[in-house]
Amino acid sequence: MKLVPIDVSLKEIMIDKFNPRFTKEKNISQEELISEMLQSKSSKELLRSLQEDIKWVNRIVIQELSNHEHYESFGAVGTYQYVAVEGNTRLACLKSGAVNDYDENTIIPVLFAEKEEDESIEDFRKEIRITQGIANVTVVKEWSPISKAKHLLALYNDVKGISKPAEIYKQISNELGIGIKEVRESVVRYMIFNKISEISEPIPEDNWGYLEAFDKNAKIRSLIGLDIENNEFIKDDDEYYDEIFENIPELIKQALRGGLNTKQFRDIIFEIAKESEGSEEFSTVITEIVNEEISLISKAKKNEISDRDQWVKNLDEILKQIASFPNMAEWAIELVEQLRAIEEKTSKQIRNVTE
């Protein structure tokens, strides 16, 4: 693949409804897609920036629509000849009609991802994914953690079966310039996320972090049926594993109701795994023990006294002690310096609070 600078009109470029930023395919019109994309805070900030000034330093990257791996699923394409590879949000802003002097007929400079003559369509599409990964996975951009993980899994699947998992993680790490650990955890977590979605209700994006309880520990990955050697879900006795995946969304809901953060939830799962001898036992006890632990932690949280309440209690006690100070005692004069020190520190705190 090579990137060739060309000029095309906005009406020729389609926003990619299969872009990894969307965790699910968007079966809506281009107009509806633009409207939806411009609802986020980051998109609105980008739109305001483009309304002020446009510099074509980082050009939108496009590819020929007919080369897209989901070309057959686009339906009627009308005037569209190209689809965005990178820069979908910028494209949405320019197509929105909210940027002065830009409409569907405006010609803009872009980079055209061109398939080379001796390049297979499969290799070309791999290069497209790497380009998207470099632009959106290695930097903080609009893609959510789930979108990034989904894309890393796509890169992993490009070479799955050719190399061992550890070698693939290293290859992706080198291609994108991110840590091997981040690649592995993202790939494994998205595999788990996908498995849950297949047999139970999908995990909401806000709860993505709770899945770290199942992707960080090799024993847990084995207990949920993920072969740690080839990174594939075990097919035999999958009813045991399915039971676990069916229960995970409810376990996370229980954790949320109990006020547990991702680390507390992860630690509970780790402890259960440590005591488990096999997948069947893990499947049997996980729901019961998690609920028990969540209940205990929730009760402890309710019984915890806040910093404010603790200081109210402390100061009330100090007031009682000072009020009963035996100032008529013969030895009271010996403690005057300590009382003055208390007075000085108290006055200082009052000034700090009120000024």
Description:
It is a single chain. The protein has 14 helices and 7 strands. The protein has helices at 30-37, 41-52, 88-95, 121-136, 145-159, 165-176, 180-199, 212-215, 218-223, 238-257, 262-275, 279-303, 307-323, 336-354; strands at 2-9, 13-14, 60-64, 82-86, 107-114, 226-227, 232-233. It has 3 domains: 2-120, no CATH class; 205-303, no CATH class; 307-354, no CATH class. The protein is of the alpha/beta class and 355 residues long. It is extended and about 105 Å long. 55% of the residues lie in helices and 9% in strands. It starts with a strand and ends with a helix. The mean pLDDT is 84.
Number of domains: 3
Q: Please give the radius of gyration in angstroms.
A: 29 Å
Q: Helix content range of the residues, please?
A: 55-70%
Instruction: Indicate the structural class.
Output: alpha/beta
Quickly count the helices: 14
- What is the tally of beta strands? 7
Coarse shape: extended
- Low confidence ranges: none
The largest sheet, given as strand count, sense and whether it forms a barrel, is: 5 strands, mixed
Q: What's the pLDDT, averaged over the residues?
A: 84
Give the termini separation. Answer: 64 Å
Q: Which percent range describes the beta-strand content?
A: 5-15%
Order of helices and strands: EEHHEEHEHHHHHHEEHHHHH
Strand order of the largest sheet: 1-5-3-4-2
